[in-house]
Amino acid sequence: MGSDDAFLRLVVQPDIQSFEDLRGKILTVDAMTTGFAFVLRRMLALNGIDEEKEIEWMSTGGVLQRWQAMMEHPEQKGTLQVTPFEVLGASKGHHILARASDVLDSYQGLVGGARIAWAKENAETLAGFIAAYLEAVNWCFEDGNREESLDLITANMPQMSREVANAACEVFLDPKTGFQREGNFDMPGIATVLDLRAEFGPAPDDLHGAEHYIDTTYLEMAKGR
């Protein structure tokens, strides 16, 4: 099933006001060959930045580690973050320079997947899981459920304040750009993922089209319940 575009944001330090300001600066990634790093590299290229000559790359770990590093080291000028880390960084003046969705026409960031053999052996369980997930997502979108949603978030993630959780929900539950309520795949978005992999690699020689990697059997079973 499809979920969302990962809500990717290029978050930068207060002194960065444009892509031009990034020339000669440090940007951080987990590794240069991961999918989200490919997105950042495409964003730079589309804004005229030569990533090899004009950017100093630094690997500082996953999204949590990159956020912490930027909070502590202002010389690290930007990184690709996911909600709610752009909210948490606001206290240091960090701000969104661009959203991946502003630059890429479409992007499939997160999906739910399973091994083929396991899925076949556990079809009913898998379809039930998908159905329950979609029911929960749609419940969150319903008017009147926001406060209870925030109760659930803060109860299970006590490190997140209610204010931050509410700001995250504004992103996650946006009717146009939030979670995919039907679990459908963004096929052009998957094509973008594959295109980025082919450009920045490593990629297998037999990289196929988006349809090759998708099986909607269990999603359709879930919707039929």
List the helices and strands and how they pair.
Blueprint: E1 2-4, E2 8-12, E3 25-29, H1 35-46, H2 51-54, E4 55-59, H3 63-72, E5 76-82, H4 85-88, E6 95-99, H5 100-103, E7 110-111, H6 116-121, H7 123-141, H8 146-156, H9 162-172, H10 187-200, H11 217-223
Parallel strand pairs: 3-4, 3-5
Antiparallel strand pairs: 1-7, 2-5, 2-6
Helix pairs in contact: 1-10, 7-11, 8-9
List its salient traits.
single chain, alpha/beta, D-Maltodextrin-Binding Protein, domain 2, 2 domains, five-stranded mixed β-sheet, 7 strands, 45% helix
Short description:
With 225 residues, this protein is α/β, with parallel strands linked by helices.
Lateral strand order in the biggest sheet: 4-3-5-2-6
CATH homology superfamily of the largest domain: Periplasmic binding protein-like II
Order of helices and strands: EEEHHEHEHEHEHHHHHH
CATH topology of the largest domain: D-Maltodextrin-Binding Protein, domain 2
Overall shape: it is globular
What class do helices, strands and sheet pairing give? alpha/beta
Low-confidence segments: none
Return the domain count.
Answer: 2
Largest sheet: 5 strands, mixed
Give the mean pLDDT.
95
Provide the helix percentage: 40-55%
Q: What is the CATH architecture assignment of the largest domain?
A: 3-Layer(aba) Sandwich
Return Rg in Å. Answer: 19 Å
Termini Cα gap? 16 Å
Number of helical stretches of at least 4 residues: 11
How much of the sequence lies in strands comes to 5-15%
